[in-house]
Amino acid sequence: MAIVLRTYGEQLAEIDKAITAVMSGQRYELGGRSMWKPDLAELRRERAYLTDKLQAYGDIIPTQSAQTGRAYGVSFG
């Protein structure tokens, strides 16, 4: 399975879609199976976290340095 890296902005867009889906109903059926959508409070916490990261670091793909708050720059020239 390949790991897909997404920017904070892309993750935030997915969270917004999930929040919209939850607002339209928690439970749904698909192919005769009953499914539950994520908890709205949990999605809102994740949205606040991603919004903070997006404001602090910009729309980057998170790395270890972004998560710890340490930024490293490289200058050529």
Inertia-based shape: flat
C-alpha Rg (nearest Å): 17 Å
Distance linking N and C termini: 40 Å
One letter per element, helices H and strands E, the order comes to HEEHH
**Number of beta strands:** 2
By oligomeric state, this entry counts as single chain
Strand order across the biggest sheet? Answer: 1-2
**Secondary structure category:** mainly alpha
Largest sheet properties: 2 strands, antiparallel
Helix content: 40-55%
- Mean pLDDT across residues: 76
Number of helices in the DSSP assignment:
3
Low-confidence blocks of residues: 66-75
Strand content: 5-15%
Plain-language structure description:
Helix content is about 50%, strand content about 10%. It is built from three helices and two strands; from the N terminus they run H-E-E-H-H. It has a two-stranded antiparallel ribbon.
Output the keywords.
77 residues; mainly alpha; two-stranded antiparallel ribbon; 51% helix; 10% strand; flat; disordered C terminus
Concise summary:
Helices cover 51% and strands 10% of the residues. By secondary structure, the chain is mainly alpha-helical.
Set out the fold topology.
Blueprint: H1 8-23, E1 27-30, E2 33-36, H2 40-57, H3 64-68
Antiparallel strand pairs: 1-2
Helix pairs in contact: 1-2
